[in-house]
Structure formats: structure tokens, C-alpha cells
């Protein structure tokens, strides 16, 4: 039975350092065949660079997904073309550079994966995530054994609706973007694993990975200011998904929380 390990949004240097330190051991401990991570906040809390992507891949991550901060780092629109194991959201305009999906093969098992952006509260121009997911499944038909979908969305209702829409057609619909791990992990009736948000790999003594005093001050006075990445209570939020080799549906999903310095 293939096991998939998905890591929630990697935030800044604290998050990526801890992930690089622990991902190989987690892979062995959890017997994960494929490791996927959202790393759209890996560079200073906003965006990613080729150098950082290469470091994460070298540490033991098989595939990197991105979200609405995909173009935040200067020149990444040129760098992404060189990254074969990184995909940008599938429902961005087709003119955007980068791969709109990936196919990862391990031990004879082929996993297709892609991300769709939500259209509630996110400002990046994107097509309908539901229609894009349908089109992607048709495109991937025959190319892979199972499909993993990341729902990079702000609205929980949009994530849940996408989960029900894809139930029985994909192995998992896992939410990202809010950086807060939810408690609704389950396998839907059709055999699709669902989780509204996997959480984040980064500092939890913070507000969504950022220095809490700066964020609180901004809420109090309404003034714009920089929100530096925090560095306390670094954790890895993730989920483990087990796929039945015969049916290619999910038989198990479990949330993972690893605290730095705590075994």
C-alpha cells in the first residue's frame, strides 16, 4: 500500500531548516513512499527560489507545490522553468510559466498531483478550481494510478465543497494556505482522504508564522508594517495518507505534528 506524506506550508528559514533536518527520518519512520510539500512561503515567508527548492528536494522531498505567493520572489518566473519537481497552481492563466501538474513515480506507483487556488478572498487571477480539477483529471487519465489534489484556499466552505466534488475520483483533497491545522481529517464515502488544512511547517509561537507583536500592533492601529518571520516553537504539521493498492482509494489518513526537540 503506497503511503503519501504531505507537509503543510513551509514558512521561512525556521520551517525549511526543521523540514530539512527531519524529513529523511520521517520518511523512514512513517514508511512514506512519496513526500510532497507546499513551499510557497519558504523564502522569507513569501515565495520560493530555485536555490531553496533544490535544497528541499535534496533533503528528501519528492514534489513541491505552490500557492498564491508563487511569484513573490524576484525572477522566480524564470527559475521555475528549470524545476521539474515543482508545480504552480493549475488554475492560473495558461500563459504563466511552470508546470501545472506533476507525476511522481515510486516503486511502480504513479501519483499525479496538482494544486488549485480558491477564488474566495484570494486576489491572484485564477480560473474556476472545480472546472480546472475536472479538466486535469481528464488530462491525467491513463497517465497515473491515483491523483492527489491540493486545495490552496482561504474559505473552508470552498475546500469542503471541492472535497465532495472530487470524492471517489481522487485519492486525496488536502487544504493549505491558512497555516492552521484543522481537526476534520477523514476518508469520504467514495474513498477520498480529506483535510481542510494541513497546517504549517514553521514557528507556531507566532501569528501564522509571523512575529506576533508586529501583527497585533497592526490590528490595533491599522498601520502597515513589516511582518518578519518568527522563530519560536517550530513544528512540522503534516498528514499521512495510505492508498489501497487494489482500489487506488484511500484507506487511512492521519495528522502528524512534530515539535522541535520533542521526540
Describe this structure in words.
The protein has 263 residues and is α/β, with parallel strands linked by helices. It has a single domain, classed as Metallo-dependent phosphatases (Purple Acid Phosphatase, chain A, domain 2, 4-Layer Sandwich), CATH 3.60.21. It has helices spanning 12-30, 50-59, 76-79, 129-140, 156-166, 212-221, and strands at residues 3-7, 9-10, 34-38, 63-65, 86-87, 102-106, 109-117, 146-152, 172-176, 186-187, 193-195, 200-203, 234-243, 250-259. Strands 1, 2, 3, 4, 5, 12, 13 and 14 form an eight-stranded mixed beta sheet that branches. A hairpin with a 6-residue loop joins strand 13 and strand 14 (250-259). The radius of gyration is 17 Å and the shape is globular. The relative contact order is 0.17. The model has no long low-confidence stretch (mean pLDDT 95).
Instruction: Write down the overall mean pLDDT.
Output: 95
Oligomer state of the chains in this structure: single chain
What is the number of E strands? 14
Largest sheet: 8 strands, mixed
CATH class: Alpha Beta
Which CATH architecture is right? 4-Layer Sandwich
How many domains? 1
Our estimate of the beta-strand percent is 25-35%
